[in-house]
């Protein structure tokens, strides 16, 4: 079991005046995406707060909320501490509400950034990835192919993109990718709202894990072959396809909920 130090290192620090609700959102998303292993022990409060860039009091308040949500538990005694409790399935209703609250312009900006980061990371990974990184990417391809539930699919998909960024050996790209995954990964796999017509075309289709895994496999093999141009092109095409569906899903929602801003 790990102590959470490596996991926390993947999460960008909050602003100095970060609020407890921001910590709750950041840590809960990290848990849902599998950045924290189920049962993993979080670092001591003082250290955890420093790594996240918030006060110990703010972190303590956030952990109390996370305990109420069932995402962490605190154990007493010599082997005690705060441990992750990852739910089997993501909160679909909460995720749909989050997507509805996003403006089309904000979503477009995220899509543009994801396109740029994923492509650059894949190209650099083809030049810098270690054998261990390539094996990890192939393992994650298999995990997505075999995942039979929404939660494991989201985690395998998200971890693949983060591992590509890690393989690029660029700390800045890795942090950007983690930030993007916490905002987009769960939304990408949202089931269509079949009870609210008209959900047609891409907006009516759930991502196919077999197709997505095949695209991941192609990216991984291009990285293994040290073919940076192909890796970049495949990564960009993959992101473009996935995020085109997300945009279609958001626009379908907009027909039944007027936007506050475009």
UniProtKB/TrEMBL annotation:
Pfam families: FCD (PF07729), GntR (PF00392). Residues 17-87 form the HTH gntR-type domain. The keyword Lipid metabolism does not apply. GO terms for molecular function: DNA binding; DNA-binding transcription factor activity. Transmembrane segments: none annotated. It comes from the Bacteria. Keywords: DNA-binding, Transcription, Transcription regulation. CDD domains: WHTH_GntR (cd07377). This is FadR family transcriptional regulator. It comes from Trebonia kvetii.
């Amino acid at each position: 079991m790990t102590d959470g130090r490596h996991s926390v290192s993947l999460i960008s620090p909050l602003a100095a005046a970060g609020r407890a609700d921001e910590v709750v959102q950041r840590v809960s998303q990290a848990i849902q995406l599998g950045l924290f292993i189920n049962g993993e022990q979080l670092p001591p409060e003082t250290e955890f707060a420093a790594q996240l860039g918030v006060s110990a009091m703010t972190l303590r308040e956030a952990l109390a909320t996370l305990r109420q949500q069932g995402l962490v538990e605190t154990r007493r005694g010599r082997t005690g501490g705060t441990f992750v409790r990852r739910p089997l399935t993501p909160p679909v209703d909460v995720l749909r509400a989050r997507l509805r609250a996003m403006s089309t312009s904000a979503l477009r900006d995220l899509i543009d950034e994801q396109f740029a980061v994923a492509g650059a990371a894949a190209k650099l990974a083809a030049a810098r990835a270690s054998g261990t990184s390539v094996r990890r990417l192939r393992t994650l391809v298999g995990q997505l192919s075999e995942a039979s539930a929404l939660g494991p699919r989201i985690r395998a998909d998200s971890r693949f993109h983060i591992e590509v960024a890690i393989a690029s050996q660029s700390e800045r790209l890795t942090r950007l990718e983690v930030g993007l995954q916490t905002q987009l990964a769960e939304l990408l796999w949202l089931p269509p709202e079949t009870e609210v017509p008209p959900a047609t075309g891409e907006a009516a289709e759930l991502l196919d894990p077999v197709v997505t895994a095949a695209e991941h496999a192609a990216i991984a093999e291009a990285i293994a072959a040290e073919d940076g141009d192909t890796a970049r092109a495949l990564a960009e095409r993959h992101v473009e396809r996935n995020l085109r569906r997300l945009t279609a899903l958001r626009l379908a929602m907009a027909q039944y909920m007027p936007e506050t801003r475009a």
